[in-house]
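Intended use. Records like the one below are meant for learning the mapping from a protein sequence to its folded structure. Do not use them to infer anything beyond what is encoded.
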Amino acid sequence: MPVLKVSATSNPKSVAGALAAVVREHGSADMQAVGAGAVNQSMKAIAIARGYLAPAGINLVAIPSFAEIEIDGQEKTALHFRVEPR
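Structure written out for the chain above:
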């Protein structure tokens, strides 16, 4: 399952569409965001994706956790969201 990487400049509607597609195909999805702007866009995308999937009877929930990742040789703390049906 691919990890959806969200940045502060990501379009929430586009991320929501990708998120909904991954959930439909795999049953759940993983998202990763570094920084406040990216977390904001991630949360918007999750809210929009809930609206996309609600008519199909799928109620999404997001489970946040921290992840240590490496970007350009530097260790960064990312927020990792596991998105799955309730």
